């Protein structure tokens, strides 16, 4: 019997051990949500659900222009608001602020500072989906969330007056607010604001576990009592509760962009009872499911914390943007239903197309389809694919049209559960718009720096996006479209300067920007010439332009070793890890057979520019891009060119990583001997076979398998040196350069002489003047020609050994003079409207009520009451003294448009820097209507309108020329 009992006991122990070993590890314990909350990381430590609509977090700053709501070095909490952006550089969200208080009374007009409380970090606890703090006012606050709802638990000091301060005006930009006491257990309201998101709706319903004993509200700084409903642009409320009942108060809050009814439905569905721990545990489980998609083993706990915190940050955005009944507010402001998809917002696309969305193509393909369907819904609702959609709004922030990259990368990798025909149409439409320098890009094959700010960056990023469209067209067998966008994918060559082996600004007359300082130049966006070594889709072509591997690696060596600004966070030489244009650069050595240099630098970035401290991010998290870079690089590869089916190798950080795929397969990366010294790849096998390449295909990962590296302390310089083992570019065949008009007036009086050119040597240009498509049977260009009538010129360049160019179309118009208007009792001066708020484009001015109006002598902005966030509309008439062709020059900073006789003549929106745009029109003598819109975002305000004709040289339009 003893033997039997011993056997049973042994089996029981084995069973318990087995159960314990099979139990999944709680990966939330390896997440430190405070990483990035100091310095430039701009992250927040509060409670969120994976990809959820709620980010319930403490706010330690009242400044409405602050890019972060919480900074680790701060010591005061002003409240807990329900929406936060993950590590961006914009002062946005932070909606619906609640702050519990105890024992305070007698404040008729609520004040944020009055209810604020100090706190200490030793009294904070946080993990994915949960945050708690014991405030210095002795109130314990605990927060958790569901997908669309926040859950607060306040524990008050015993026998103290219990209350909640609510601020709907915070942080700023409130346009329409209301709050209503529905009953003694529930309130509801709306915060509609104008900010970076031009028109953001946040409806809420809040329920309390105890009855409200007093409800006090101030509206526009006027105290109102015994009022169950209030409306205004500044609403702050105080709610009191019975302190005799018990010390704990629970608050459930549902949010919606649709209505209070939608918020109530969300609350009823997601938090039907008052079990705080149940919701906390459910959210923790959801986070473990996401974090567990990649399992790592080995190395230090510090590195593991950085990795899983990166996973956490990567799964915060995009944000859910629909109610439980599938309704959402569209770009058009209307209410729509998300049929057969889940709708999301917060796409920081200029950042996240580089690594975050490619990461999702591996570990979250279902959501990738929903992300694309969400982008297409914004196309349906708003008219074009978004650049940075936020809370049902376009922001048109940053540059490029990288939504096409997200779509193309998914399509090329076989993720196609969306309307591919609609997607392709949307891709073409945004690429063929005339905004933001595209009109020059399409005509000149580059953007001139004297017509557009950030001209080189825009040229390069448009070029990459066009390559994405070309790859999609090729996959869909749309070869006519492929030919067009394949040509455009080569336009980066037109801003490549062979004397410096860098990309350089070029003016409207094809002359290089001079003097040229590659370290500081206005032709780039948030970077310099070294950081904008950007042609990810054609690194092979770039190497050829530079004259070979040595010149290419010399430039890279300079980039990573040249002295950097000491104040720049996250730099190695000119490499700036704190900003996205640099993120691919370390991987480029592989294309020249020097992958060992990539391995060294990537390891340096992983270990020196990331840490497990509050300032452990080298720059803005930018909605997961920084973290996605870290995740990919830790695995040992990176998507240099999303839209291509390969990843370029670095070296793995951990001894083992297991990627769990939605198709049921696992892809395992093993790094034998990996430690602090053994950072170089000595050899590799894929599924047991010798693997010599410095890239891996997407299909190899998705098929599952085992990639094993043997690591060492010295570089293996011969590995992946052969061209056949290097990463390859997918830019297609070489194409003859786009021909261009060298001379010729687009608008002329009697005649104009037209000359043509092409930068490809020995190329022949064939053209037509009747609008027909040119071919080799058309007129061969040999010398300049004249025309005395309106013509549509179409031309195409051909070469014996290179693919012919696409067709370029330009119109040359014989002047037709616009008739003057009759203006009685004309007086000098312009009517003006002055506005104050954040404007995205000049079109936003038409939606606003002016702050002031009046008469002003000429086009000027020196009377603006502030240095940023304002706008003007000027209207009147300009006196034309003789029939002539007039050239107008509009110089502005952030955005302007000029209209003559209600026709747009100059569009100068979206520049950040003082840039001059030009427009021509033919006018008869007399009065003509003139209108100018101007917006100012950041500093450096600038506005100047000049003109010239055949009768006078260029000069500023004076007050003597303007009438109303």
Give your account of this protein's structure.
About 20% of the residues lie in helices and about 30% in strands. By secondary structure, the protein is α+β, with helices and mostly antiparallel strands. Among the domains are: about 35-280, Distorted Sandwich (Beta-galactosidase, Chain A, domain 5); about 740-815, Immunoglobulin-like (Sandwich), CATH 2.60.40; about 830-964, Toxin - Anthrax Protective Antigen, domain 1 (Alpha-Beta Complex). The strands form 14 sheets. The chain has a 9-stranded antiparallel β-sheet. Strands 45, 46, 47, 49, 50, 52 and 55 form a 7-stranded antiparallel β-sheet that branches. It is globular and about 95 Å long. The termini are far apart.
